[in-house]
Amino acid sequence: MPLHPQVVELMNISAELNIPALWEISPEESRRLGNKRREVIQGEFIPVSIAYDRTIPGPAGDIPVRIYEPKGLGPYSLLMHFHGGGWVIGDLDSGDSTCRMLANGINAVVVSVDYRMAPETKFPGAPDDCYAATEWAVASAAALNVDASKIAVAGTSAGGNLAAVVALIARDKGGPKISHQILYCPVIDYQFERASYNNFADDYGLTKQAMEWFWEQYIAKGDDPLHPYASVIRADDLSGLADTTILAAEFDPLVDEAVDYGAALKAAGNNVVTTVYEGMIHGFNGNIGLVDAARTANEEAIARVKASFG
User: Fold this and answer.
1) What's the CA dihedral at 183, 171, 96, 144 to 10 degrees?
2) Residues 220, 224, 229, 235: what is their CA dihedral angle, to the nearest 10 degrees?
3) What residue spans define the domains of the chain?
4) Which one of the listed residues 4, 81, 180, 282 is annotated catalytic?
5) Which of 129, 252, 256, 308 is catalytic?
6) Residue in 97, 157, 196, 231 annotated catalytic
7) 209-252 per-position pLDDT tens digit
8) Catalytic site includes residue 14
9) 252 is catalytic
10) What's the CATH number of domain 5-309, 3.40.1010.20, 3.40.50.720, 3.40.50.1820, 3.20.20.70?
């Protein structure tokens, strides 16, 4: 189907801001302009019982987090959230509406993690922070009023990559038992030749050139972008991983790698559902209240996580 009219409207609003291409400006300026875009395009504000910011100990200093407590009775389940932005841009506000909807829908405490970003911190700084935050949340289960046997991870784009990586690390290290991973439009592989990368290289929000730039910022020169904690589909063994919900977009350069990862996880014996939302672009799921499919996608994720916990 063609681009959905609600998506076209948001793309037109974004185009009017005349934000330069990422590779034409500094990461600091990209972050500032990304915040400006978010001020103009604001989705629905979803009330929760409480949301507050704090810091927690990390492998290289304190990590800022935002903790959401749902409108419901505890003990709650636990959901770790990692924001998107190509490992370079984005912050705790990026996924705020998603965190709020997931908190209430799943009846989960959501811990959203403001991990260290590139290019100031190269791989594996971001996954190290995200995994450390997950371990902290599990160790703090009593204080957070959560049932540490019910853990999910979630993220969009680079955040989806980090959610998948945390699930891999937890399995490999015998760490916290992750029950479910929600991967929205995830970055899966350092490979730019799948058909969707060429079909949707330009004019659909996220571009092929932007993804190449993001990877260049994230992986230090001489390091391996095909390491499985960066390109998760490259792991030698994908068995024994969390139940997975992959929510992809039809007009996204990353859609083919998302579908490929779902197929690889399923072939390894995991419980996987992959849904490609027609007419949507990269990151559509964050536009709750602006794009109808965003609410639908999050409702799908909520139902799947609750089934895993049940």
Assistant:
1) 150
2) 170
3) 5-309
4) 282
5) 252
6) 157
7) 999 999 999 999 999 999 999 999 999 999 999 999 999 999 99
8) no
9) yes
10) 3.40.50.1820
